[in-house]
Amino acid sequence: MDATCDVAPNGLYKEPISVGTGDGSTRFATRCHPNADAVCAEVDAFFAEHWPWPSDAARDSFLKTEPARWACWTFPDAKNERIVDVTKLTALLFLIDDLWETLPPTESKAMLKRFMPIIEGKLQPVVTNPYEQILYDTYAKMRAVNDALVEPVSREMAVWANTQVDEERKHCKGLGALLQVRVRDAAAGWVAAVMAYAMDLHLSPSERASIIHIEKAYAYLATIDNEIESYDKEVAASGRNGAVNLVQMLADDTGCSIAASKRILWVLYRELQQQFLELVAKREASAEGCSETLKSYMKGLECAMGGNEVWSGYSERYHRAG
Predict the structure, then answer these.
(1) 293 closest CA partner among 216, 206, 191
(2) For 23-129, where are the alpha helices, taking DSSP H only?
(3) Strand pairing partners for 31?
(4) CA–CA dist 157, 197 (Å, integer)
(5) Bridge partners, residue 4, by sequence
(6) Which residue in 136, 138, 123 sits closest to 84, CA to CA?
């Protein structure tokens, strides 16, 4: 796929196009990292060699979803010297996510118990366990580059990991409550932290405090997009009755079809996109001033959402051929 993507201009809502990218009229910037092809080739080759695939077919099926290209779409302005490790980490997260779908709760919790000590470098990985070894090595390399920016990456990854074994999401009442849980499940905070590391962006405490509402809007947007695109995959893994997803809850609560529920959520997503851009414009024009670092961070959030929408709209992770 080309390293750039032309997106249709904004317009009235219409039926989602076949690959599932909503109405195709994203208001967000969409660019792919300039070194995407080389990065994807390197990371794909790494996992093809070092991951314990049960079969060649399983390996080919995973790589066909272009997991490495997700990071290149999501972090288009990542520094060249950081994009490979960031891409390895995000591809590993996809593999861990798939693995946890197949594990019983007791094994998932045992895996989680070792998770944070390994990320923090406090526990040596089992050398025969590729998941632990790759996780340990990648985080160690990133910490050596910039430990301060990796700390929030580690913290947010722990939030995501704990959500995977949290039973709370199965008992949420109402879309608002479920959205709060799914924000953690979709790893929105982790993506933002990785973006800051990849771009070497250091925000001051006051800058961070001034954009809490913008980061919240970003988290909701990223989550809603993920809910729509991942719904069919979740149903395939757990069955419709086991899918804990905004699409399913909206359909159950209103009696509308799954297709109608997705369309409604796409409309909400488009409205929140516009709200996000307005919040950013207001912050940039505020009397308190807006540093170039803060502008880059907010643009990074926008690119992360735009890139995720593009990749999620075509990747066979969510849209299996045939």
Answers:
(1) 206
(2) 36-50, 56-64, 67-74, 83-102, 105-119
(3) 4
(4) 14
(5) 31
(6) 138
DSSP annotation of 319? S
**CA triple 99-104-109, angle to 5 deg:** 85
User: What are the angstrom distances between the C-alpha of 240 and each of 53, 148, 228, 232, 245?
Assistant: 28, 42, 14, 9, 10
Give how far Cα 230 sits from Cα of 5, 182, 280, 308, Å: 22, 12, 28, 12
**What is the biggest distance separating any 2 CA atoms in the chain, rounded to whole angstroms?**
59
d(C-alpha 68, C-alpha 39), whole Å: 8
Residue type, position 168, single letter: E
Pair 132, 125: CB distance under 8 Å:
yes
What is the token pair recorded at 132? 């632990």
Q: What proportions of the chain, in percent to the nearest 5, are helix, strand and coil?
A: 70, 0, 30
CB-count exposure of residue 128 (10 Å: 0-12, 13-18, 19+) = exposed
Full pLDDT tens readout for the chain, 322 residues: 333 333 333 332 233 333 344 555 678 989 999 999 999 999 999 999 999 999 999 999 999 999 999 999 999 999 999 999 999 999 999 998 888 777 787 887 888 888 889 998 899 999 888 889 999 999 999 999 999 999 999 989 888 877 776 666 666 777 888 888 788 777 889 999 999 999 999 999 999 999 999 999 999 999 999 899 999 988 887 766 667 789 999 999 999 999 999 999 999 999 999 999 999 999 999 999 999 999 999 999 999 999 999 999 999 998 875 4
3-state secondary structure of 31: strand
Tokens of 52: 């314990």
d(CA 130, CA 145): 23
Say if residue 170 is exposed, middle or buried (CB neighbours under 10 Å; 0-12, 13-18, 19+).
exposed
What is the Cα–Cα distance from 86 to 92, expressed in whole angstroms? 10
Place of tokens 């996000």: 276
